[in-house]
Write a structure and sequence with these properties.
This protein is of the alpha+beta class and 356 residues long. The chain has three helices and eight strands. Helix 2 packs antiparallel against helix 3.
């Protein structure tokens, strides 16, 4: 019998952190597993009753750890924590931006570990019950009767073929849904990266705009000073020997050249800030494209979930139909047994009559 409902793996908690792994050679130093902060999520598999910690960086999984009751998350500093994964033979470390994020992740780790412990205890109790039932069940030496009537036998073969077809279709849709989940996780990680870069560019742009306003005021003041110095130089040239000495004229000319060089440097800085602004607009465009791709992926996942629900409903209907056919076959077998018993009684009666 197949289950009537099968839920896929679902995320239950997510956080942003820098991921590290212990150096397998020294067992002391940390090796960065990601260049920047990535999303670290707790997932729950309802089919197997299993909790996992997963983190995807680019196209590969940085963390793929099944939570067991023996694991312990240890805070080694105000913003850093670690735990050991014996199955992967490694130790994972997470660096958070704030102490509050570390505390939230630690509490969620404890909750998931307790849930995993309860799940293991329930599984062990279930295994004990099944073992006791198998020991107490009676053993039948005779094989069940075989039904050789053409009609019910054809129904049985059709029922088994329908089960195999529905099972293969459900596995195919489950595979499609898992691929969609991986793509959604990759898009979510890419979106978080773009949002992080976007916030940094916005802060830099605000700072640059403030600096531009300040530099514009300084530029206007320098221009006024330059015009005034030029007027003084022209006046000195007009008056000739009646004005200040040639030494003062050279000093004014040198000050004028320095101010012109400073103006040129400020113009170059303004051009650099304008190019950064263009890069910010390109980043906004990339973020919009990522949001659009994420929405498309969500629509695709919704369509896949709808198809799975329809397949589960068809599977449920097929199983009900098979149960109904099994009941009909069982009733036919019982009727045949009664007829055979009546025929046997009639035969014995005829034998007695013949003997008389």
């Amino acid at each position: 019998m197949f289950p009537h409902h099968r839920e896929r793996e679902q995320p239950i908690f997510s956080a942003r952190a820098h991921v590290f792994q212990i150096d397998p050679a020294t067992k002391r130093n940390w090796i960065p597993a990601s260049k920047h902060a990535v999303t670290v999520s707790f997932f729950y598999d309802a089919n197997r009753n299993v909790y996992r910690i997963i983190s995807v960086g680019g196209t590969k999984a940085i963390i793929n750890c099944t939570v067991t009751p023996s694991m312990t998350f240890t805070k080694t500093s105000q913003k850093f924590g670690q735990w050991a994964d014996s199955r992967a033979n490694t130790v994972y470390g997470l660096g958070f931006a704030t102490e509050q994020q570390l505390h939230q992740f630690s509490e969620k780790f404890k909750e998931v570990k307790d849930a995993a412990r309860l799940a293991r205890e329930k599984s062990q109790d279930k295994e004990l019950v099944n073992t006791a039932l198998s020991i107490a069940a009676p053993q039948f030496s005779q094989s069940p009767p075989v039904m050789c009537v053409n009609g019910p036998e054809d129904k049985l073969f059709r029922s088994q073929s329908a089960d195999i077809t529905l099972s293969s279709e459900k596995e195919r849709i489950k595979k499609m849904l898992s691929e969609g989940s991986i793509c959604e996780m990759n898009l979510e990680a890419e979106l978080f990266t773009l949002q992080d870069s976007n916030s940094k560019l916005v802060a830099a742009l605000h700072e640059a705009n403030a600096n531009v306003e300040q530099w514009k005021k300084q530029l206007a003041a320098y221009q006024e000073e330059t015009e005034r110095l030029r007027e003084q130089v022209a006046e000195l040239e007009t008056h000739g020997g009646h004005g200040p000495s040639d030494l003062l004229k050279d000093e004014l000319t040198q000050s004028l050249e320095e101010l012109e060089a400073l103006l040129k440097a400020k113009d170059e800085e303004i051009h650099i800030l304008q190019s950064k602004k263009a890069e910010y607009h390109e980043m906004e465009h990339d973020r919009d494209e990522a949001m659009h791709r994420l929405r498309e992926m969500e629509m695709r996942n919704s369509d896949l979930e709808r198809r799975i629900q329809n397949t589960e409903q068809n599977l449920s209907n097929s199983l009900e139909e098979r149960d109904r056919m099994d009941n009909e076959i069982q009733r036919a077998i019982e009727i045949l047994d009664i007829k055979i018993f009546d025929l046997n009684d009639l035969r014995q009666s005829l034998v007695k009559l013949i003997d008389k």
